[in-house]
Design a protein that fits this description.
Number of strands: 18
Number of domains: 2
Shape: globular
Largest sheet: 8 strands, antiparallel
Strand content: 15-25%
């Protein structure tokens, strides 16, 4: 580990800021906060636990499975074991006020030989628990945030030393400044102005154009751009959950993706009438196709996102979606997520949005949410409802 004690303390402070920012209501004494962490992230989990205790909250700590445990689970489980819900998990979700996830993988490809259908079945089985937390989130009773803790595996796949990889994390999260929370508050404020500008337009569809992308995305009715809400550390992206029915054209992810122990590179998706009708990948195509068959919503768009390079200090591929979807670099990035949408992109009170209303408005529902990142030089044009067009994003910068 190359974090200093001071940097760990700063990381914990930023996470507590993210947790508070991500929830509408203030936390109260004895509110329950779940800390989920992979074993390499134990040093950070210890500091976060101490911070929560000092704040009068009730931290609950749970470690993730080791790579070998995950391999055993997917290779040896029968259907009942795959879909088993641990007694108490539902009750915990119904009582949770917040959660912090410290992602620190010891392996990125250990499930490459596992059956993708078994992985999908286990994910679908846990969707009811995620639905409980989503409803609590919409009511302002629950907030969440997550971050990444550097590991040898992440550094190796990003082709960096662990020291250099850690330095990228330090810079990306502003852990190299005395008061990183103040810096995040500045980012939060500045991006808030861009969101207000975007949400002041009446848009029929967005046209995304690059060397490898020609895609139209219809925002749909009663939508708003959201982002930099404290949910992810770091986060510089602004995103919308569009009406999936208005997606047409081709999307390409030039950044590789490590997902549930599998590696996918160069995935190209063709959409017709809102659904993926063709999926190709240079590596991992079989896994990708099976992920898109997870359920009916897996072939539809749940999110479209843009990152302004002026805010993000991330300039290297990090082999981790949390960082890669916030890549700044030369041209910023966009990412498209197939699968579930975010109700907080609804331009109203998400807590009052019923399932029937979501369906009518074209909010997608799925157990899948897979972010696919493109860093090409690109232009995004808003085609307005009343005619005319506005270039909102070009060469990595919002044209605000």
């Amino acid at each position: 580990m190359f974090f200093t004690d001071q940097q760990l303390e700063r990381y914990a402070r930023v996470l507590i800021w993210g947790l508070a920012t991500a929830r509408e209501r203030d936390y109260r004494k004895n509110d329950i906060v779940l800390i989920r962490y992979d074993q390499p992230a134990t040093p950070l989990a210890e500091v976060v636990q101490a911070s929560l205790l000092e704040a009068g909250l009730q931290p609950v700590l749970r470690t993730g499975l080791t790579p070998r445990m995950e391999v055993h689970f997917y290779k040896k489980s029968n259907e009942k074991q795959l879909t088993f819900t641990v007694p108490g998990d539902r009750e915990l979700c119904e009582k949770l006020h917040g959660s912090i996830y410290l992602y620190a993988p010891e392996s990125l490809t250990h499930l490459s030989d596992a059956d993708p259908r078994k992985i999908a079945k286990a994910i679908v089985a846990r969707k009811p628990l995620r639905d409980i937390l989503e409803k609590r989130d919409q009511r302002g009773l629950y907030g969440w945030t997550l971050c990444m803790f550097p590991t040898d595996e992440l550094a190796r796949y990003a082709q960096m030393s662990l020291r250099d990889y850690t330095e990228q994390v330090v810079r990306a999260c502003y852990l190299d400044v005395e008061n990183p929370v103040r810096q995040w508050e500045t980012v939060h404020r500045e991006i808030g102005r861009i969101k207000k500008w975007l949400n002041g337009m009446s848009v029929a569809y967005y046209h995304v154009e690059s060397e490898n992308i020609d895609l139209k995305i219809a925002p749909g009715q009663r939508r708003r751009w959201v982002g930099v809400s404290g949910h992810n550390i770091p986060s510089f992206e602004i995103f919308i959950s569009p009406d999936w029915r208005g997606t047409e054209g081709t999307y390409y992810a030039d950044q590789p993706s490590y997902r549930t122990g599998n590696f996918v590179r160069g995935i190209r998706l063709t959409f017709r009438k809102g659904k993926v009708v063709e999926a190709k990948a240079e590596v991992g195509e079989n896994f990708a196709v099976k992920q898109l068959a997870m359920d009916d919503g897996a072939r539809k768009v749940g999110e479209f996102s843009l990152t302004d390079r002026r805010f993000s200090r991330i300039n290297r591929f990090m082999a981790n979606t949390l960082f890669d979807e916030n890549y700044g670099g030369r041209y910023g990035n966009c990412h498209l997520a197939v699968g579930s949408s975010y109700a907080d992109s609804y331009a109203g009170n998400p807590a009052k949005l019923t399932g029937a209303q979501k369906k009518k408005l074209g909010f997608n529902d799925s157990a899948l949410h897979w972010d696919l990142v493109n860093t090409d030089r690109k232009r995004v044009t808003a085609h307005l409802v009343g005619g005319g067009r506005i270039v909102i994003y070009d060469e990595g910068v919002f044209k605000y």
